[in-house]
Amino acid sequence: MNILDRLVIKEFFRLFVLFLLASPVLFILGDLTDNLDTYLDRGYDTGTVVMGYIYQMPLFISWGLPVAALIATIFTVNTMTRHSEVAAAKAGGISFFRLYAALPIIGLVLTVLGLVLTELVPMGNRLRAESMGERDAARDFETTLADINERDLRDATRADSPLAIADDAVVIYKSVGSALQDLTVSELCLRRARERGFGRSLGETIEPVAK
Fold it and tell me: Does the pTM of the predicted model rise above 0.70?
């Protein structure tokens, strides 16, 4: 590692850390603005809300990580260009790609860090739910399924706009956007459905529905 590599790494992480520390604050402010009324209605004290956001830090950091890396990369290249450091490096026979060779390596390291954070996110969400009384830690699958069935029964039998499923309807699982959660939930649902003889297999292709 030469002097230019150290210069690029130093400049990158100076900006990266700044943006990474700022991003959770923005996410917290946005979430607090949306949920402040809910927190007040449920009677949460300040300590409970603060602990809830502390448990969500892995989630907020994982959201801010790629944004901070992108902004830090752009500003690193822009700053070194404005200060004629890129021109000086080229004059010394160092190409643009060699000058910033450290950035792809940093990107790989940050990718691994992001994967580690995604493994911590479910744990943080569970601790937050338990600390704020949103979920019982001892709940198992059968208890959760019973609650869902009870909710669905209330929705299907209510007098005002009941949510009833037609006899010939085909129920399809809808993704919520989190790949790990989708895989886990869908695998569990498929396993339970096969054990209980629910559902039916579809063909390899599904004809599109005209809208």
Answer: no
